[in-house]
Amino acid sequence: MVFRNINWSGGVNIDGEWVTHLRLADDIVLVSCDTTEAEKMLHELDQQGKTVGLKINVAKTKLMQSDGLRGTTVRLNDILVEVESFVYLGQAMNMRHSMEEELNRRCRYGWVACNSIKEILANLNDPAMHAHLFNSIVLSSVLYGRETWSLTKKEEQRLTVAERAMERRILNVTLSDHVRNEEIRRIIQFRDVIEEFKRSKYRWAEHTRLSDNR
């Protein structure tokens, strides 16, 4: 209802369409070419929100801008805190187009997931169930949001190294056991992290080809 009463112009031109904001429930990103326009949009959103009893939490509202705009400010009662990156819908975003922070987060969540099922897998003697749990819990944690990633070979290698380490942890195989990764891959049914990443990218590419923007 709030956005129906706002008629923003400007924003950023992406493939011929002007994008002024992204939103999912109350997670909202305003997109602008300059801070003057951004501040105006923010105040308009604040005013429209108040008409239906909604209020912007200024403490949780952050400003992220390109290097050319550094030093400029946006106000909503107080000056918004400027950040180098922020997490939106579960993914770390930044203006450097760097995947480093997000890959750090994904690997960290992957290890948390790996450790959460380690004891369960230790009591199972079913390779298919091992694979199902690893693929659905651990790999999904590592690859969350993968459809929008653009990885270098070095970044792909980093994910591969992380997955191989997780496989060894689950199988309780250490480097001192002198078991090669190829041998481990031969006896398990875990999906390969990079193959899964690329499959998802291809599926997403097909989806974005739909002419009605679905």
TrEMBL record:
Pfam families: RVT_1
Highest taxon in the source lineage: Eukaryota
Residues in Reverse transcriptase domain copies: 1-93
PROSITE patterns found in the cross-reference section: RT_POL
Signal peptide: none
Transmembrane segments: none
Name recorded for this polypeptide: Reverse transcriptase domain-containing protein
